[in-house]
Batch of 2 targets.
Target 1
Amino acid sequence: MDYLQSFAVSAAGMAVERTRVEVAAMNLANANTVQDPATAGYRPLRVLALAAHAASFGSLVDSGLEGAGLPTASVEPMAVAPRLAPEPGHPLANVQGLVAYPAVDTAAEMVSMMSATRAYEANVAALNTARTLALKALEIGRNA
C-alpha cells in the first residue's frame, strides 16, 4: 500500500479547510466595513470545494485511491445585497439616511469557522494515524 496517497488526501483536505477558515475570518473582519455608495464595497466570500473527478461512489471504491482526484477549493464572492442600517448622521449615508454594510451573517461564519477547524483536526488525526501505521509496517518489515 502506498502511504503517500493517503498523506496526499489528508494534505488536500487540510488545504481546503484552511481556506474555509481564512475566508470565514476575512468575512468576519469585514462585517462592519462601511461601503461607499459610489463604489462597489466588500462582498462576502464563500469557498467551494471541488472534486477533481466526477465518478460514481462505487467506481471510486473499486479503483481505490488511484481513481480519486484530490479536492481543491475555489473562493467566489456571494451575490447578496448589502445590509442597510439607518444612520442619518453618517458621512456615507445615502439620501434616505441608510448606510450600506456587507451582508455577512456572523453566526453562519462562526459555525463555518468552527466546522472547518474540526474538519482540519480530523485530517490531522488521519494523517498521524497513517504515519503511525507506515512506521509500524517499516518496523515489522525490518524485524522480519
Target 2
Amino acid sequence: MTAPPVSRAAPLLDLETMRACAGRLLVNDTEVSSSETLETIVLQLHGHLMLAVPEVETAALALPEGSVARACALFCVREARLRLSAQPGRNASARARIAHAQRLAGSVRTLCDHYEDDDHQCPKAPERAAYLRMLLHCPACRDCRALDDNGGAVGSCVTGERLYEEYRQARRGPVLGNGH
C-alpha cells in the first residue's frame, strides 16, 4: 500500500500552535510557574524551530541570489540555529533561563513570519532589512571599499551613504507626531 501524496497547498507547519507557544514567553508579564514548565516550553520551542528552520531555509534558497528577502530569511535561519545550539549554563539563574527561552521564542515567531509571507520579508524588522540592504551593497561597491595608503576609508558612495542613513533611521524607529 502506498501512502497518499502530501499536498503542499496546506501549510506543513502549525503556525497557530507555534505562535501560541512563543507568545507565552514574549508577553511583558512573563511568569513561568516552575522550572519544569519552562523546560517543557523550551523543548517545544526547540521542536518548532527544528521543523521551521529547514522549511524557511528551503524557501529562502529558492529566492533570487542577492535579494534582501533571501538574505534576511537566511540570516534568521542562521540566528535560529545559533539559538538552538546555545544552552544556559548549569548554574544559570531563572532569569537567564527565561531570557534564553525568550530568544528561542523570538526566533520561532520570526520564522513563522517568514514562512507565512511569500516574499519572506521581516515585517517586524525594518532595521534588519535596512542593514541587509547596506550589507549587500557596500562590500561589492568599489567606491564604498576605497582606502587610502594608511588603510583609512576614503570612499564616497552616494548609494552607500543613503543606505547607511536608511539604516540609522530604521534603528531609531518611526517618527511619531509632528516633532513637537
